[in-house]
Write a structure and sequence with these properties.
The chain is of the alpha+beta class. The protein has four helices and 21 strands. The structure holds 3,6-anhydro-alpha-L-galactopyranose. The site of 3,6-anhydro-alpha-L-galactopyranose has 12 residues, from strand 7 and strand 11.
Length: about 425
Amino acid sequence: MKYKINSLLSITLSAVIFLTACSSTKSQDANSQTNTTTKGFPFILPKEKPNRPLSRAMERNYDNYLAPRPEDNELYSQFKYTELKGFDYNDHDGTITRRDPSKVIFENGKYYVWYTYRNTPTPPKGAANSSETIPSSDWDLCEIWYATSEDGFTWKEQGVAVPRPPKPNVGWRSVSTTDILKWKGKYYLYYQGFMEASGKRGDDCPVTLSYADSPDGPWTATNKIIIPNGAKGEWDQYSIHDPYPLVYKDKIYLYYKSDFDGDPRLIRMQGLTVADNPLGPFEKNPLNPVITSGHETTMFPFKTGIAALVIKDGNEHNTIQYAEDGVNFDIASLVDLMPIAAGPFVPDAYTNTKDGRGITWGISHFTNATTWDKNHSILVRFDCDLSLDLNDPEMKKHHVYHKAAEHYKHGLSNKQKERIKSENKKLLKAKK
Ligand code: AAL
């Protein structure tokens, strides 16, 4: 009996001990679980998305960019600028402009760039004051000129590539904003062809084309509209700007921009049109506009897709975007001080690559280079690291530092100062 009682006691004791042990392991487990879930976000930013609850912003930081840190993001870069040598601007009196450069290409042992060139008796005077010789805008009464260089810094201007054709051919009023395509050993310049002074209604034009066997010309004008404006009521009914061809998926992928929605609500977005032949027919993508922001077009093959610099204007300005299919773009990075109207050197622009390597430099422009009454633009070189083959930590710094003087240049207008004065007055009056 004694034995029975003892063994009963010992069984009960073991059970109690076992149960206590179990419950304490359980609570230890629970504690350690609580500890990991409530522990703060790690001090060292994880390279991979951590398996823990994340804020929407942190989800985005891992899902939307090529890397969680800008310096590891191949589509993030700073932009550095260098004044070009070799171009004369008539003491910057506004009578000579060079703007909207093409992509840079390397042929015959040198770099080539084409651009809008204006040489007029006066600076632009607006549509109302324009005439056969007085330009309405900086890109009115222009020709397409080109220059060559061995280092990309010092350029030798070679003169006209595409002059204005005689009236009434497309572009008789002005030819501007060109870009180059190399296709099956021939060269094609796409450009805006104006049939009236820019600014009469808006900045209205279609795109036309000249072709040549050599980048030095001679260029044969098609005198035809190659990329037509959209039908009445469509977003691109008035303007096809900034034609920008690439060879992608065995075809010519030509991106462009249009101004729409009417003045003063003007909006600028970008579209895509595709052809098998440089002379067309081009078929506009049914999803156009494919980029909802930006101003001039700047794209390059990147990995298996297409990357785009989305510069001024729109909700997504100051971004670099990427489309795996060349059509559906996502924001890949947010950047500062972007090159305006950038024409990059894109070695694989026409190789039909499925392994785009990116860009490291190009030519862009600064508009209103001095003052509005001497309005003209100048070409400039930009450098960056948007390349899979370069790793330049200086280009990957996280922000651009501006001196106070730069900020003060963007001061309040008189109208804004007046508004603030009257708001202060109202507050003071209410207090009395
Ligand atoms: C540029 C470009 C097109 C416009 C005008 C000249 O920045 O977008 O070329 O027509 O401005």
